[in-house]
Amino acid sequence: xxxxxxxxxxxxxxxxxxxxxxxxxxxxxxxxxxxxxxxxxxxxxxxxxxxxxxxxxxxxxxxxxxxxxxxxxxxxxxxxxxxxxxxxxxxxxxxxxxxxxxxxxxxxxxxxxxxxxxxxxxxxxxxxxxxxxxxxxxxxxxxxxxxxxxxxxxxxxxxxxxxxxxxxxxxxxxxxxxxxxxxxxxxxxxxxxxxxxxxxxxxxxxxxxxxxxxxxxxxxxxxxxxxxxxxxxxxxxxxxxxxxxxxxxxxxxxxxxxxxxxxxxxxxxxxxxxxxxxxxxxxxxxxxxxxx
Length: 292
Prior knowledge:
This protein has two domains: 4-84, Arc Repressor Mutant, subunit A (Orthogonal Bundle); 89-292, D-Maltodextrin-Binding Protein, domain 2, CATH 3.40.190.290. Helices cover 44% and strands 25% of the residues. The protein contains ten helices and eleven strands. Strands 3, 4, 5, 6, 9, 10 and 11 form a seven-stranded mixed sheet that branches. Strands 1-2 form a two-stranded antiparallel sheet. The protein has a two-stranded parallel sheet with strand order 7-8. GO terms for molecular function: DNA-binding transcription factor activity; sequence-specific DNA binding. Keywords: DNA-binding, Transcription, Transcription regulation. Residues 2-59 form the HTH lysR-type domain.
């Protein structure tokens, strides 16, 4: 038998198409994932991927093998869940963006577990849309306009982008005057490169900022702002706890709204599952309570 870690790494790379995304899911480095894949190819004496620069494409044998490995790992996971589950308990797996988990869902999850102890929620993070036919995920958070064929989309809250900085930033920036931000270092989220341009347009501002720093993860944007490196943009709901604790603040009254929201999504053919309905209803209640 090939090493199990090598099989898991191969299946993740086959599904995501890149070492980096597979590494993010497996919580290891891309180098480690690449080493596992090469070890598996050495054991099998077969090329599973064609390598063209940094791109990876499954070979024909690799594509066949990936489907079989995915099914086998799924059966192992199913058997493990069945063995662990006690009578009367239900488990649902939820995928969400890292910052959504850290800033919104995880701080509230204890109240769900206390209210519904018979439902166990497991969490994973990721940016890409979930393939519910291949991945062991029951529900996922998605950002957009709520139209995804075959999926139930439960709206949680509208995307409201606000500029934020350490406590005292608003007073320093002429009490929230948007023009003052052009003299600041603006922290950019690389996955949403249009955010600052759209926010400045909503503030009727033209011109370029004095300096920018870019990060590929919103969690890093948060850390940079917290450490005083500059001013960032974030979903207003994520900021509430930091404002209440007196650590961060909105530095302007301008709020960017583009008609997009955060949704809990799951396949329409699983919508009758009581645990999913319960979780979706609780998520909506929590989103409504935050809005209120």
